[in-house]
Write a structure and sequence with these properties.
This protein is mostly helical and 191 residues long. It contains five helices and two strands, in the order H-E-E-H-H-H-H.
């Protein structure tokens, strides 16, 4: 690997090394039983309800770590772009970033598309074209780019308690005489 790409590779290596740290932080939180189940009376019906309460929020560092991992991956592409510009004798500027486009039409646009990137050589443009860096193209380029934008405006990891299912064991008073309604898992209660 050329020396001018070592920073980009280090950025990806750092991100990959942080994924197990993030996974551990989330697993530790889940293992701490961060929720409590309580039986309460429904004020409207008087029936018993099982209510879940969140006792411990997810460590905000998990959200920060997720964003930093994504940003490091996306930034590595921009580091590659800056290196390519320098190789072509063009000083990198705020407009020197790895080109990822909203659509194939934007990508192919003769005025604003890939061909307009004067800091890239013709062979580099051809290689980037083969990567398909646009929505509907290579998701390994498009998704980190979109997530890096999204992480600045929304939380990438949110915790929400939601009902996913319930299992209840009970005795039935009697079995139905209708064979289609008989349930073998519901024994008859002793009389």
């Amino acid at each position: 690997m050329r020396d001018d790409l070592l920073d980009a590779q280090a950025s990806v290596d750092w991100a990959v090394a942080q994924i197990p740290v993030l996974e551990r932080r989330i697993a530790d939180w889940m293992g701490s039983r961060p929720y409590e189940l309580v039986m309460e009376d429904d004020p409207k019906t008087g029936e018993k309800l099982m209510v879940a309460y969140l006792r411990a929020t997810l460590d905000p560092l998990a959200v920060v770590e997720a964003g930093a991992i994504i940003n490091a991956i996306r930034s590595s592409l921009d580091l590659v772009a800056a290196s390519l510009a320098r190789r072509n004798g063009k000083p990198p500027s705020k407009n020197t970033h790895f080109p990822i486009f909203r659509s194939i039409h934007d990508f192919a646009d003769p005025l604003e598309g890939i061909e307009s990137k004067e800091w890239l050589s013709k062979s580099e443009i051809a290689k980037i074209k083969a990567l398909r860096p646009y929505h509907g193209g290579d998701p390994c380029l498009w998704l980190p780019h979109q997530l890096d934008i999204l992480r600045k405006h929304k939380r990438l990891i949110a915790v929400d308690l939601s009902f996913q299912g319930m299992r209840m064991n009970a005795y039935c008073k009697r079995r139905s005489k209708n064979p289609s309604l008989k349930r073998p898992d519901c024994p008859v209660a002793p009389e």
